[in-house]
Write a structure and sequence with these properties.
Transcription Regulator spoIIAA; 4 helices; alpha/beta
Length: 116
Amino acid sequence: MSVVEHYTDRGVEVLVVLPAEVSRAEVVERLGHQIRRAVDESGRAAFVLDLSRVTFMTSAALGLLMNMQAHLGKRGARFAVAGISGEVARVVEQTRLGQVMPVHQTVADAVEALGA
């Protein structure tokens, strides 16, 4: 079962997280595997993780975001998160995730920032 779709927008690879809830361990694990595969296969230097469909995330999913940033940083790639709202936005704000990685309101804003 695919939990990520991806497409390219102005040279930036956009990874769309499909499940509304990223809470079960197997979903987080599958998500991490599929994101890494998409990143490794794309060869791009900039990535946006689109969380606009996600309504709930566990701390394990937040850890996945941190691991993705580290993985991409080792490759010299740039990474941003976009499309957060509701409960996910509250958690991102409380954990101050925006202080350690770029967080944008929309995918278009993130693509513009990374494509510059």
